[in-house]
Write a structure and sequence with these properties.
This protein is mainly α. It is built from seven helices and no strands.
């Protein structure tokens, strides 16, 4: 039946933005896992006391979540400022010379493969419907109804980082002292394998290379901090 062949495919406005935030959330969780794992493994290599491990882990979690939130807020706010400037310029051009903008839109459609006649007709129809949105999408590559929200970006990044950071912290605090580091290492590598595979899936890529890459990176981070913690613990002790 017409209109039912692709009922399960996402065609709605905002799908690209949602996928971008999902991908950013996966990367934020990955950062939380690696950075916090490095901290707690390093401290655990220097001492068996839970207090310092817990304190260092919580401090790293809080600092990382705040840093991620601020970074995303500043980044997305800068992007929004740039988009606002481009939109203002486009609106001004539409007001000052609508005929030239119509010809420009037709040219953009023709450059995408339409015939000159079809491109002109499409430009006229889209201009009647919403000239600004048509130019924003065709000329700037921006959907004015699907802009990123800096507060949403900041909150999402902080939550993703916190959830990721909680895993190594829990994994290293629950087991007895002799099993803390091995359990944490295994839990972290498994979690990184999951985030690597999910990131590859969102990017429609093969999961093996990014998964192995992120696991090696996390393993190296823990190895380095473990070595530093051991040296510092021996020197101080």
């Amino acid at each position: 039946m017409p209109g039912t062949g692709h009922a399960n495919e996402p065609h709605g406005s905002g799908i690209t933005n949602r996928l971008n935030w999902l991908r950013a959330g996966v990367l934020g969780a990955n950062d939380g896992i690696v950075s916090t794992a490095g901290i707690v493994v390093g401290v655990a290599a220097a001492t068996v006391d839970r207090g310092p491990i817990f304190t260092a882990g919580i401090a790293g979690l809080a600092a990382g979540a705040v840093s991620m939130a601020l970074g995303e807020y500043v980044s997305v706010s800068t992007q929004r400022d740039t988009e606002a400037a481009l939109f203002a310029k486009e609106k001004r051009e539409l007001e000052e010379d609508p005929e030239e903008e119509l010809a420009e839109l037709a040219g953009l459609y023709e450059a995408k493969g339409m015939s000159a006649e079809t491109a002109e007709r499409a430009a006229e129809e889209m201009t009647k419907k919403d000239a600004f949105a048509a130019h924003a999408e065709a000329e700037l590559g921006i959907d004015p109804n699907d802009l990123s929200n800096p507060w949403q970006a900041a909150f999402s990044s902080a939550v993703a980082f916190t959830l990721g950071a909680a895993l190594p912290l829990i994994a290293i605090l629950l087991p007895p002292a002799t099993w803390r580091i091995p359990v944490a290492v295994v839990a972290v590598l498994l979690a990184l394998a999951l985030t690597g595979a999910l990131s590859a899936y969102l990017g429609k890529a093969s999961p093996w290379r990014p998964t192995i890459r992120v696991m090696i990176g996390g393993g190296l981070a823990m190895a380095v901090t473990y070595g530093i913690g051991s040296l510092v613990g021996t020197a101080v002790g």
